[in-house]
Design brief:
Elements (H helix, E strand, L loop, with lengths): L13 H4 L15 H12 L10 E7 L3 H9 L2 H4 L7 E8 L11 H18 L3 E5 L4 H8 L5 E10 L9 H8 L27
Antiparallel strand pairs: 1-2, 2-4, 3-4
The structure holds flavin mononucleotide.
Flavin mononucleotide binds next to β3.
Amino acid sequence: MSPRTANTAVAVHPLLAERWSPRSFDARHTITDEQLVSLLEAARWAPSAHNSQPWRFLVGRRGDTTYQRLFATLLSGNRLWAGNSSLLIAAVTAERLENGTPHHGAAYDTGLAVAQLAVQAHALGLHAHQMGGFDPEQLRTSLGIPDDYRPLSVTAIGALAAADLLPQELRDRETVARERRPLAETFFAEGWGNSFLVRHDG
Ligand SMILES: Cc1cc2nc3c(=O)[nH]c(=O)nc-3n(C[C@H](O)[C@H](O)[C@H](O)COP(=O)(O)O)c2cc1C
């Protein structure tokens, strides 16, 4: 078990427990066409309200124009590490349903599609790191995104590299224990704030 594996009260599927968001990616790794299409299929087959599929994605492979344009939109902290990833994929959501009415659940659906993509990356032995730290207006302009679509995230995907290849200021964050709010402060029953408690000692 990797030291990055989630410390869960009981076992969860290894794909979920072992997924994490690294910063150290292998700059020599390239993704196969089959792996790439597998990632895109995982996102495409996400569920969505009324099967509206509000997501669209812009896909860049390291070295191509799309990748360079996506990389240029990243905030400086993300530019420190994300350029070694094999892929940068922007998730963009429709803001309206096809009949023109506002689609209030669109971001929920599109986030779910990215989650599926991230888990599929892990299933392929790759890693994914989502980023909200980018300039959405720059992304809109540089890649021609229409007004009724909104960029939500850019995800770096690639093969893991050693933590000590990172700049010093990022190294410690790569190995620190992953943490989450406790179950009892997250899951409620009989009213807001009352812990939903369940025996989990076997
Ligand atoms: C929508 C979203 C935006 C994020 N934005 C950034 C970001 O801009 N830069 C970054 O380094 N990590 C970013 N992250 C990664 C989170 O910091 C990370 O998922 C969280 O700390 C939990 O760590 P884990 O994914 O390893 O479990 C983002 C994650 C999500 C889901």
